[in-house]
Structures are given as structure tokens and as C-alpha cells.
TrEMBL record:
GO cellular component terms, semicolon-separated: cytoplasm
Recorded superkingdom: Eukaryota
Keyword Repeat: yes
Matching InterPro entries: ARM-like, ARM-type_fold, HEAT_Maestro, Maestro-like_HEAT, Maestro_heat-like_prot
Stretches with biased composition (Polar residues): 706-725
Keywords: Repeat
Protein name: Maestro heat-like repeat-containing protein family member 1
Region (Disordered): 15-58, 73-105, 702-725
One family name in Pfam for this protein: HEAT_MROH2B_C
Gene3D superfamilies documented for this protein: Leucine-rich Repeat Variant
Keyword GTP-binding tagged: no
Domain Maestro/Maestro-like HEAT-repeats: 443-689
Domain Maestro-like HEAT-repeats: 169-252
Gene: LOC114000261
Amino acid sequence: MAGGCFGLCRLLRRNRKNRRGPGAGPAQEAEEEVQHFQPLQQDPGRDRPEEQDRARGRLRRAVQRLLKFVGVRRRTATTAPPELPAQPDTSAAELEAESDVSTAPRDCAATSDTALMDGTATFDTALTNTETSSDTAPTDVGAKADATTESIADTDCLPMDSVTDAPSLDILEEKTVSNVNEVPASVRSIHQWLTCQESPEVRPPIAIRRLAHAHPGHVVTTLLHCAPACDRAAAILWRTIASSATTAHKVLPTLLGVMEDWPLHSVSTSDGDHMDVFALAATLALWLMVQEPQCQDALFDYAPRLLLALLCQVSMSTEQMPQEVSTFWRGCQELHGLPTHPNSFVVQTIRALLCRLQWDQELVSVERKRGWDALLSADTHHYAVGLLAREMRHVLLPSYGPLARHLLGLLSTEGPRWELPALAFLVEVLNYLDVSAGDDSVLQILARHLQSQCPERRRLALRGLLVLSGDPSMAKSICSLSELLLELLRDGDGEMVAMTLSTFLNVLQDGDNTDGFSSTAPRLVEALRPVFDNDNSHVQLLSIRLFREVMEVLAEEGTEPWEMQVRQSLVPLFFRWHDENQRVAEAAREALLWATSFLKRKDLEQLLKTEQPFRFCDCLMEKDRSRRGEHLQQALPYLQSPQEPLREAAVRFMGVAGWHMREWQQDLWPILKGLTAMSDDDCPSVSSVRTALVDAYSRAMRRPMSLQQPRNNPGTTSQRGCTCS
């Protein structure tokens, strides 16, 4: 058909040449252009360079202008009867030629329809065949050329006005769209044309790549709005965009902005179209782009933020799924065969991202530690986020400083949507945050989460403070949070208490921070004594060390105000000296040595140095008569200790205390009650000493153990007995 059209053109030019005479240069030039263009029409290569595409486009438009001009001239001649007599006589061949010319546009349109149906057309040729007003002839014939457009056969997939109104791809390839208001319409036209292409081998239009390079934000938002579920046409466009590294680098920031705004991102296109775009739609677009190897460098530049946005999407889609998001995802799942739940798809996208970046070792490491499964559970998600952040540390190390700042920006606005996953990631990158500028925003964020009702947020905030306390420049600022930390010492979670104690220890290591800490120190000493007996041996060790550090700080202000605090710690530290854990026992002995030196008790200090524990107990009860009852009450709970050495030490302590308190039978009652309340002990030494003491004290009291408790208060009688003695 194309060959017939070009033969017709040559015939017309020959006729015009005969009328005008020899030397008609323009006709000869046009004939040369047609002859040069004809082989390009016969062999439209798919992989031709962009310069050839533009050259062929210019030639193609030149031929179309010629065809339009001939067609309009034919219609003018047939509709102007007064001019007919002036025409010279025409031969039958000329009339036949003019008849063929009048139908040439229809034949070309029919050819275009055939190409659309058999899948051999491209977006370039489709829009060029239907082009009317983009590349017009002179003004006097432009108005009449509309009639030719109406003669083009309709396609089966689009109304003709939706195609003819769209800008030609050839125009977009030759010049940048200067008016951004035209970008959305161009994107929609490209998407509509691809939608009607049934052949899977259709060549992707490169015009979308140029548009995205020049106007990345407008292209991304328009494409997300007109095809949120990423149909086949949109998938081709996203992959075409990703096939250019520079273009992918430009569109990723806009995609990130949509992904970070869960569940909907409100935006307006340049032509005034207000819309809400699903965050998951941007994730779906990213998943398609990741499959193109050309975008690897762009993905690497944005990998930290992409990873963070995806992790937060996993968390939010696990905890909350609005109905509109569920409905949207069902459509995506049916269209692409994706996982049923969005959080599984987002995890799939994270893994695809790591594969594209060739971080196979990190991918396998997280898999081996079952991190991917943990991401899908609301209870373990924060743990998996921290795990992933640690595994990515050596590949993302240069980006962790800026990423920490980005996380602080997210967490500075109150709201539950980002907090837990962002806080979990922040804790892992705090070491790379430059806090030398004195910015207290990080402390404000952590302090807010320390008071949260969510235990996991409190735990993460405390971990963050522990990390910051290792920086001397931050230690002084952490002192302002001492009251909040004191509350955490009463927490039943041993890990929380251990992190609190470690934070206090780090702060006190810098002597410059003691001034801001002195107001909290007395209450801290009082809160530490119960922690000596925590079930966790690590907590016991930290509490004993911290007690000594705090008392050394207080001793610098004078010994007299703090003597009471030190005396009350002697008995608990004495029993920890018998702990099964050698580190705890050694720390307790060192703390006792410091305490006896602080109290100026040389006798007790000497017994500690010679390691005579029960002589220590005897000396303590003998000379500290006014506190015998208090010491006894502190020792009684150790009769029920799960540790055998502590039970044995407690029984022997009861024997020493009973000997010094034997003058008043009422003072023996608490001892006997505690000894008889002990269950049968597997340790023979403990059992034998206990039995002997019960018998001895029972005889001393001269009444059976079934008698009622004396009416006098043990504490009062103890004081009275001590006074009289």
C-alpha cells in the first residue's frame, strides 16, 4: 500500500513538472526525499538509535504534509465549479491518479488500523498516522485538513479524539514539553495507547523516559493516579523509566515521598487534578523498577531510605489495614498474582531490592536468623528491623549518619504510624549520629518514648539512651533524665533494669557529670538496695558496682549525711559475698571493703581482708547493738533464697543473731518463725544447723513452738532489750 502511495506521488509530481516546464527543483527534491524514505518504511528496525528515530520522524512528517496538501487540493478542485472550465483537459490516467490521491489518506489509515491489530505498530507510528494539528500545513489549508482526519478509520480500542488530542511521540522526542500542564495529558495518552496494544512484543515508547527525565514528579504522580494497580501498560512504562539510570535516579525521590505517606498520599498534578495515591501503589511501581538492572546505581543511592520506607510499610500493613487499602490490594493481587497480604509483598520487595544491589550475603544472613519471618509478626517486627539494620551496617555505613538525621525528622512529629520501626532502626544507627553540635532533639524523642505505655517503645528508647551515654558529650544531658530512669529501676523486666544501671554507670564514669547527678544520688542509693537481690546475676553485679560509684560521689560532699545509707547496705552486701556467682561475690566484697572504710570500721575491714565472714557477722551484731533488730529483718528473707550458699549463710547468721539477742525471749521469736518456715533442705549442713537452732531456741524460750506470738512488738522489745543490755 505504501509503495502504491509513493508511486502515485511520483506520477503527480511528473504531471506538475509537465505543466510548469523543466527546472522544477522542489518537486525533484521531494521525489528524492520519498525515494530515500521508502526503504525505511519497509524495514522499521526496533533497536535503531534515537538520532535515526528523529530523522525518520522528520521524513515521515514531510511525506504526510505532501499527502495532506494533495488531498486538500483535490477536495478544493471538486467543490469549486467556477474553476473547472479553467482547468486543462485531463487524460484518463490523470483522473485516475487524482482519484487515487483522494483515497490515499484512507488507505494509510487503514494500514495503520491493520498494524494496530496485528501488533506491528509502535506508539510512534500510531500517533503519526493519526496526526492532524500537531504538524500542520500552512494556515489556508489547515482548516480543510480536518476533513481528512475524519476519513481515518476508527480503531477498535480507543476513540479517535483521545488519540488525536494526545501530543505526538515524535514531537516529544524532538523538544521538551516546556509547559508542565501538558505533562499529565501526555502521560495519559501514552498509557492509553499502550493499553490498546494486544501484542506482548510492542516496543516500549521512549517518550515516557524523556518526559520522566524532564518532569519526574509530574510523570510519577500522573502514572500512579491513572494506573495505581500497575496494569500491563503501566508496567511497561515503569520498566522503561527504570531502563535509564539517570531517569530512575530522578523519579525515585517522588516514589519515596509516596511510599513514606501511609496509607494515602495526597497530591495535585500540574493540570490541577487533585488525587490521593496509595503508598502501596508506589511500592508496586518500585517492585517493577527493581527488575531492571540498569537502575542498580540509582537504587544504591537511595537504598537506606528505600529500605526504611519498606520496613515501615511492613509494620503498618501488619498492624493496620484500612478497608480502602484492602480493596485496592485485592485488585493488585488478582492482576499480578501477588501474595494475599500486603506485608508479605513488601517483604518480597525488600528481598528483590537486596538481590538487585547484589547484597546476597546480607540476604542469606537475615534468612538464617529467620528475620524475614519475624518481620511479618507484630510482636517480633521491631526485633527484625534492628536485625536488618545491623546486617546492613557494613554495606550502608557511609549512609547511616544522614539516615539517623532523617529518622529524627520522622520521629520529631508525634504519631504512631512510624514510631516503632523507625525507633528500632534509629537505635542501631545512633553511633553514627554526630551529636557534637549540641542538638537535644534526640534526647527529647527518647524521653518521650521512655514514658510510653508501650513496653517495646520504652525498651528501644532506653537502648538509645544507653548508646548515647557512651558519648561524653551526651552524658551530662542524660543526667536531666535521671528521674525517668529511676522509675525504670522498679521495672520487673531484668533487661530493662540492666540497661538502666548501665546507663547510670556510663554517666558517672565522667567526673564532670557528678554535679548534675548529686540531687538524684540519694534516691538512687535507696532504690539500689532491693536490686541487689534481683533474680538476674548481671543485674546484681551492675547494681553493686553502681552503688559503690554513687557512694564515692556522695562521699566527696562529706561522710555524715550518708552514713545511714551505707549502714543499711552492710547486711545485703554481706549475703551477696556468699553468692554462687564469683563475679557478684567479688563485687560485693569490694563494696563491703569500701563501706567499712567509709564508716571507719577498721575491725570489720580487717575481717573482710582476712575473709572471715562469720566473725564479720559476729562483730557487726556485737558492736552495732542499736541496729540488731534491723539487721535481723534484713537477713530473714535469705532463709528462702534459691541459692544453697545463701541459705546456709542465713541460718548461721540466725545463730549469731540469736546468741546476741538471747537475753530477751521475744527477740528470738522472729528467728524461730523464720527457721521453722523453711522447707526441708536438701543440703545436710543447712538442715542440721537449722534443726539444732530450732531446738536450742525452743528450750531457751521454755515453751513449745505452738504457742502464740508474744503480744509485745518484736521491734520494740528488741530496742528495749538492746538498751538494757
